[in-house]
Amino acid sequence: MKNNISIIKILSTLAFVFVSVVGYSQQRAQYTQYMYNTQTLNAAYTGTQGTLAASLLYRSQWVGIDGSPETQSFSSHGLVKDRIGLGLTIVNDNLGATNNFEVNANFAYHIKTGRETTLSLGLNAGLDILNVDYSKGNYANGLDPIFQENLNNLRPMVGVGIFYYGAKWYLGASSNNLLNSQLYDSDDEIITERKSQYYFMGGYVFDVNDSVKFKPAVLTKHVAGSPITVDVSANFLLRERLSLGLAYRYDDAVSALAGFHITNKFFLGYAYDYTTTNLGDYNSGSHEIILTYNLEGLKKRALSPRFF
For residue range 167-208, what is the model confidence (pLDDT) as tens digits? Predict the structure, then answer.
């Protein structure tokens, strides 16, 4: 029995490597705490939190499987002259033998549409650097010419987004990159293909009482040729300090989330994903940690019922 499990683990690892280096359809990293990391998904979110905000995230997915995804991201943004949001996002994503590094400058223009509602239009532009290190893989034929030279490629990125929000709700749609691309080897075989990924998001904040707020949220992701991914979450904010919640990613994982405002300006969040597919037999789940900073801190939060 143990030998069978070991064989399956090896086959799973080889499958990850194979997917990442031959016929690899490049998709962006996924996040469980997307409600605290919105700028990396939607440029129009830039500047919505006020003067200065930043986040730092680390995610380790499917712990226990060699070559499984590992992601680090950083974002910082602020509002300039009441209407213009400027920001920067950096994402470092590893999967098997591949490393994908993205740097984007974000711009958003905010239009007041009512007393408490704002429409934000966003644009991001930057670079996507893809590296494939074939020495990190195991192959049936290591002498195959395709594995003799590592892949290094730099490609431009251009994305757009829209974010419409009020004091208690938000709706958004975005794509971080509208420029599809394909890379070929010397025999004109596709090595990797980058397709546009589209996000649709929404959330609402309910005031349960003076001390408790409840926010359900949803995020959908779509890539041409792949099934739509749907994330739903439900978070409670207790006394403006402690956040607790649950999330579900359709046909993939259930998650527990917890966060705490360690100071008025710093928030520390953690999420654990339990895999609900057969892959769950061969990993110990996924872990995600996020640290956020807001210059205006809880003072601004106390004046508004929203926490997104």
Answer: 899 999 999 999 887 665 555 455 567 788 999 999 999 999
Reduced to 3 states (helix: H, G, I; strand: E, B; else coil), residue 280 is helix
Type and span of the H or E element at 10: helix 2-21
Contact 287, 42 (CB under 8 A): no
Output the six-digit token pair for 220: 């959908």
Beta strand spans in the chain (E): 24-26, 53-60, 70-80, 84-95, 98-112, 118-132, 151-165, 169-175, 181-184, 190-194, 197-204, 206-207, 212-223, 229-238, 242-249, 253-261, 266-275, 286-294
* Residue 117 Cα to chain centre, angstroms: 26
**pLDDT tens digits, one per residue of 74-109:** 999 999 988 999 999 999 999 888 899 999 999 999
Q: Which of 155, 112, 139 is nearest to 18 (CA)?
A: 139
308 lies in some domain: no
CATH code of the domain in which 34 resides: 2.40.160.40
And the tokens for 168?
């208690």
Domain that holds residue 158: 2-303
* 233 burial level (CB within 10 Å; 0-12, 13-18, 19+): buried
Question: Is 60 part of any domain?
Answer: yes
